[in-house]
Every structure is written in C-alpha cells, then in structure tokens.
Write a structure and sequence with these properties.
Elements: E1 9-12, H1 19-33, E2 37-42, H2 48-61, E3 65-71, H3 74-83, E4 88-92, E5 101-108, H4 116-127, E6 139-142, H5 146-154, E7 164-168, H6 174-184, E8 188-192, H7 214-223, E9 227-231, E10 238-241, E11 247-248, H8 250-264, E12 269-273, H9 278-286, E13 290-294, H10 298-308, E14 312-314, E15 320-324, E16 328-331, H11 333-347, H12 351-355, E17 362-369, H13 374-384, E18 390-392, E19 397-400, E20 404-410, E21 417-423, H14 426-442
Parallel strand pairs: 2-3, 2-4, 3-6, 7-8, 7-9, 12-13, 12-14
Antiparallel strand pairs: 1-5, 4-5, 9-10, 10-11, 14-15, 15-16, 17-21, 18-19, 19-20, 20-21
Length: 443
C-alpha cells in the first residue's frame, strides 16, 4: 500500500514504512521546501525514535537547521513553525491509527499544509530520485515551546469556570499539550490514560469510533462531571460528551464553539464542512456570525480560511480550526476544549441544555461503503436528482431539498463512498437514507 496519502505519509512499520523512507523523506522535504530551518516534533510510538533519527539525518545532510521540539502534540508543532518562523515542519505521528502505524505530517511556513494537491506528490517523486548526497552542514537545536503554546491555547477563552471535567488522552500526545493549560485553570480533572504509550494499551486513540468513548462517558456519569473530552493520538481532534455521557456531534459543536469566537470577532465568518447539519449554520447566524460552507479536509479548510478571512471553522471529524495570533491557522483539540470551557462557563448551564436546541433535525451520520466505482455511483445519483432546488459539486455531490439534503462523496484516504443525510422528520430521513444506501450496496 502506498505510504503517501492525501494529507500525509502513513504506513505500518516496518513493512510499509521504515528508516530508509524516513531518511529519504527528510532529504526530499528539505529540497522541496528549499528550507534552511525546519521544526520537528514527534509522538511516543515505539518506532518513533528510529524514524526520527533517520529523518533528522536526511534533513541535516541537506543543510537544514532542525528545531527539535521533542515529544509534542501536532498543534504544538504548528505553533513552533509559526512562532519560530521556520521554513516548515514535520510531525512524526500516525494520529489516530493503531500502534503498528507511524507517519509524517508535513507543512511549510506558517504551518500551511503540504498535501496531495500542494506538494506531497512532489516530495514522493523526489524520494525516488535523490541523487548524490546533500551538501551537509545542517545541525539540530532543541527548543521547548510548551510555555508559548500554553499561552496560545489559553487565550482562546476568557471565562475560567471551576468545573469538574473528564479528559481522555488515549495514551496519545494530548497530555503533553494539556500540562500547562491544566496548571493555569481552576478545574477538577478526572484524568484518563494521560501516560503517552505508543502501544495504546487501553483503547485506540480514535474518538470518532463510538466504542472508544465508552470510558470517558462512564467516568463523566460516575463522577458527575460537567462534560468529557476524548482526544485523538496527536491531539489535533477532540470529541465531546455532555454531562450525561452522551456524545455531542462535532458539527453541532462547531455551532456552539462559534459563539466564543464570535464574541471576539462580531459578524465574523465561520466555516463548516458540507456534511454539517442545518443547525450549524443557524447557530452561527444566531451568534451574530456569517456561516460559510466548505469542502472536507484540513488543507482545503485552512486554504478557505486564508482566502476568506474566516475566524473559525469546524469539521464533522472533530477538527476545529482557529485563527491564532500571527495569522496561524491550525486545528487544535486543546484549544477546542478551552473554547468550550468559555462557552459553558458563561452560560452557567449544562452542556446538554446548550446542545438540545441544535438537535432539532434527524441525521443519518456518516455511512461508508466500499464500492468498485464511486464516481459512477455519484453520477447515477446526480442524474436522479438533477431537478433538485440545489445541486453542488463542491465536494462529491451535495443535493438539497426543502425538507432534506444529502452529500455523497468519495473518501480522500480510503476506497470508500461516504453518505451523510439529514431531514426535518425521522420518517423522511430513514426513507431517503435506505434508498441511497441500497444503491451504494448494489455497486
């Protein structure tokens, strides 16, 4: 399986991704970026030290000064790139994937993502044709960015409520990013799996899978906490559960968190991905903001934020995007946690009460199916709905009627076709969902 994906480099170690790959990626990244200084952070997977050593060797051979920030969450790497004004950054992580995986997230200056459409394919090509050894002359410097990152994350909110919360780090890197934040806030914290452990002995660090929320939900109910948060392996995503242990869909959280951002940026533009509920846009408008729809994927959302000046954005996958000082645009699960503290603290009401008005529509959630020809299915369905009031090809196929809508799109990372559907009534949602899923299953 190719290790160069849509947004990053990822594979099973050592079968798909090994030390030589890391060395080549280091050299190729330096050449592609024309970089003199590159920040590097890493997670705690068992094979990370070897991959890091070879990545750094490749960077140094190309004359790069490496700014090594050590064990870090991905948002900390983004902060380092922007605050230290490096020419790019590499985060060694496989995010939410199981422990046998590892990988590299690459960005250029200002933490601008390097993805399939913005340079990753060029790096892949360079890896296969490196030629002679580089000029050498590079070096490695160790820099601690924890204090600066903590200040950035804390500044997202202003209210400091004395709440009881449950935080599940999933043995990933969220605990490293949270350390200074928790010291600064008057919270009572139930800590789950704070010890970084690249074997992920308790549960996978993937909060999108509902079974991985069982522990945080149980702890919230057991302790009477105000809410719980589960972070993914590199802490650029967060999924929330309310005081009853019920998961809160991330599109509704986008609408809720927008309130905190719009308090500072009245009438600001807030982006949401096209799989989001009608209630998301309505919540943004109710908070005095301007809602804007965008396609799925962190590189596309960050680009849209740069082009439009949006102050905040959210994705159904649990990515929440902030415009930090210095014009850094970054997805940050820790900052999302801080923003929710601000919203709940100001409201003085339980999270379930704040979310309840947004649960007014009926959604299918995202349904995935393996199909042999996703694009053929999309075109067939498009012909069936060509008379709909609104048809968009922003990302796959988006069709909107007065009382229901759906999005059908191929996955950017897997051989899957994904369906999201919402309706004003449960009956309409079920009927249209079943009709479209039957077509997907027949493909």
């Amino acid at each position: 399986m190719p290790i160069f994906k849509a947004y990053d480099v990822r594979g099973v170690v050592p079968d798909e991704l090994g030390p030589d790959d890391a060395y080549r990626i280091g050299r190729a990244t330096a050449r592609h970026l024309g970089a003199r200084r590159i920040a590097v952070g890493c997670d705690a997977r068992t094979h990370t030290p070897e991959l890091k050593r070879e990545l750094l060797r490749g960077l140094v051979e190309e004359g790069v000064t490496v700014i090594d920030i050590g064990l870090a969450a991905t948002p900390m790497l983004y902060f380092a790139v922007a605050s230290l004004e490096t020419d790019g950054g590499v985060m060694i992580t496989a995010s939410h994937n199981p422990g046998q995986y590892n990988g590299f997230k690459i960005c250029r200056e200002q933490a601008i993502p390097v993805g399939e459409a913005s340079g990753l394919r060029d790096i892949e090509a360079l890896c296969g044709d490196l030629g002679a050894a580089g000029p050498g002359g590079g070096s490695v410097e160790t820099v601690d960015v924890r204090e600066g990152y903590t200040a950035q994350a804390l500044a997202v909110g202003e209210a400091t409520p004395e709440l009881h919360v449950v935080l599940d780090c999933g043995n990933g890197m969220a605990s490293v990013a949270l350390e200074g934040v928790l010291e600064a806030l008057p919270l009572r914290v139930e800590r789950l799996y704070f010890e970084p452990d690249g074997t992920f002995p308790n549960h996978p660090a993937d909060p999108l899978e509902v079974e991985n929320l069982a522990d945080v939900s149980e702890a919230v109910r057991r302790t009477g906490a105000a809410f719980g948060v589960a972070f993914d392996g590199d802490a650029d995503r967060a999924v929330f559960v309310d005081e009853t242990g019920e998961p809160v869909p991330s599109d509704l959280m986008t609408g809720l968190l927008a309130e905190a951002m719009l308090r500072r940026h009245p009438e600001g533009l807030v982006l949401y991905d096209l799989r989001s509920s009608w209630a998301t846009a309505e919540a943004i408008e109710a908070a005095g903001g301007k809602p804007g729809i965008c396609r799925v994927g962190h590189s596309f959302i960050k680009q849209a934020m740069r082009e439009t000046g949006a102050v905040f954005a959210g994705e159904l996958s649990g990515h929440f995007y902030f415009r930090f000082p210095g014009d850094l645009l970054a997805d940050d699960g820790i900052a999302a946690f801080r923003a929710l503290l601000d919203v709940v603290g100001r409201a003085g009401r339980p999270l379930s009460e704040l979310v309840a008005p947004l649960r007014r529509y009926h959604t299918s959630g995202e349904i995935s199916r393996k199909v042999s020809d996703p694009h053929a299915v999309i075109e067939e369905v498009a012909r069936q709905h060509e008379g709909a009031p609104e048809v968009s090809r922003l990302d796959g196929l988006l069709v909107r009627y007065d009382d229901w809508w759906f999005n059908l799109r191929p996955s950017n990372t897997e051989p899957l076709l994904r369906l999201t559907l919402e309706a004003r009534t449960a009956e309409r949602m079920a009927a249209e969902r079943d009709r479209l899923v039957a077509r997907m299953d027949a493909a």
